Amino acid sequence: MFNRKVLNIFLILGALVIVVLLGVGYKISSDFRHQLQITLNQSVQAFSDEMEKNNYTQIEFKPFVCSGILGYECVSKNVTIMQRDTKEKLIELSEVALRLNDFQTSELNASIEISKISSGVFDDEIKGNVDSNMFGLYSILKPNELKCDQKYKMLDKKTGEMQIKSHCEIRSNALNYEFSQLQRIKNEKMINKTALKSVTSYFKDFGSSQKSVEKIKSYDFAIDEIALGLNSTNLKKSLYPIVQSIYEQAQPESGFDDGKYNLVIENFKNLSGFVLGAIGVLGSPYQDGVLGFVDGLKQMATNQASGVKISLLPKQEKGSYFNLSSDIFLNIEHQGTQQKILAKIFNNYDLKTQVIPNATK
Questions:
Q1: What span, in angstroms and rounded, lies between the C-alpha atoms of 117 and 124?
Q2: CA-to-CA distance for 202 and 190, rounded, in angstroms?
Q3: How far apart are CA 40 and CA 341, in angstroms?
Q4: Whole-angstrom Cα distance, residue 68 to residue 158?
């Protein structure tokens, strides 16, 4: 149940981002701010109604209030995702803000920021299924805040080509998680269109899963980078008391110091290598990149590094365009489909790791 809840929460949050951005382009009039506020709230409410009808989740939210003249900010004080039947809160988002600026013909910048993420039901479930040390680890690593920036730029209006640059940062008590993506898309609907109209058309087509399957084959995609990063200037300070407690429970008479802390972290790194070998990562084209990422985590845990980043980069200067057929989505769970996708990734992309030294050490 927990895994299912986590998966659904991420899907819902992703869909909410789409709904929020989709509200930007509808019914643009001279009173843009007022119309944006109305349309945004209508869009989120419609999405909430659809989720309640087709899923076990329900969304309640305080209405978005928009302000601004040249740039716009729309804020909802609270968005809550809950169980439809029991009304149990799965996750609560405070101060959800959408910001729009740089309304140029060929560019549009948007950002979404969530000031506080609360997850009471997950806290209760995890606390009831793990010991205090594991719950402590979960507590310092769970997300507290989120900010995503997206920049849309028309590269070629004659061919309907648009670039999307995304960067998300999720903050926890001990770590900052970063995700970034640089991609290009092409579609005849975006020929000779402004960035705003192209973005609206794009998210309208991907507003629901059923429509996505129907529309996706009309788009060409190119991925120029996908990257995942972790950073913290003093991760050891957060991990040390948890590692010490685990060690002392296992060996109460032996004492604990920095040397034993480093030994536990080294053993964890070795265990990770064993797990990676068991699942088939070792021996794959991405072996060095994954092992480099694991080593970067070890360096972060001992304060030798302040961050580690792993990136999927095209072997050529830019990623080649590809088309996603509806068959891929319908058969994505089949092993044969997954192997074909992995083979294409292996043939066209390299996995690179970057470790950032800790300047404050």
A1: 15
A2: 9
A3: 36
A4: 33
- The residue behind tokens 């205090």 is 132
pLDDT above 80: residue 213: no
| Token pair 């057929």: residue | 325
Here the tokens at position 325 are 């057929």
* pLDDT mean over 30-45: 78
Across 330-348, b (16+ Cβ under 10 Å) vs e yields: eeeeeeeeeeeeeeeeeee
Closest C-alpha among 340, 338, 347 to residue 319: 347
**Does residue 332 contact residue 323 with C-beta atoms inside 8 Å?**
no
The yes-or-no verdict on residue 58 having pLDDT over 50 is yes
Helix (H, G, I), strand (E, B) or coil at 260: helix
Residue among 184, 302, 177 nearest 239 (CA) = 302
Q: What is the DSSP string of 51-78?
A: HHHHSSEEEEEPPPEEE-SSSEEEEEEE
Phi, psi of 75 (to 5 degrees): -125, 130
Using one digit for the tens of pLDDT, what is the confidence trace for 255-309?
899 999 999 999 988 888 888 877 777 888 899 999 999 999 999 999 999 999 9
3-state class (DSSP) for residue 152: strand
Summarize the confidence of residues 333-337 as an average pLDDT: 76
The CA distances from residue 78 to 34, 53, 91, in Å, are 20, 22, 11
Quickly count: other Cβ atoms within 10 Å of residue 192's Cβ.
10
Bridge partners, 233 (sequence order): none
Query: Would you state the structure tokens that stand for residue 141, as one six-digit string?
Result: 């690593």
Please answer whether residues 270 and 298 qualify as being in contact, where contact means their C-beta atoms are separated by less than 8 angstroms.
no
Token couple for 132: 């205090």
Query: What sections of the chain are H helices per DSSP?
Result: 2-22, 32-54, 120-127, 132-141, 195-205, 209-215, 235-250, 258-278, 287-301, 326-330, 335-348
In the numeric block, which tokens belong to residue 91? Answer: 């996750």
Indicate whether this model's pTM tops 0.85.
no
Q: How confident is the model at residue 14 (pLDDT cuts 50, 70, 90)?
A: low
Q: Are 22 and 46 in contact (CB under 8 A)?
A: no
Amino acid occupying residue 296: G
Please name the amino acid found at residue 82.
M
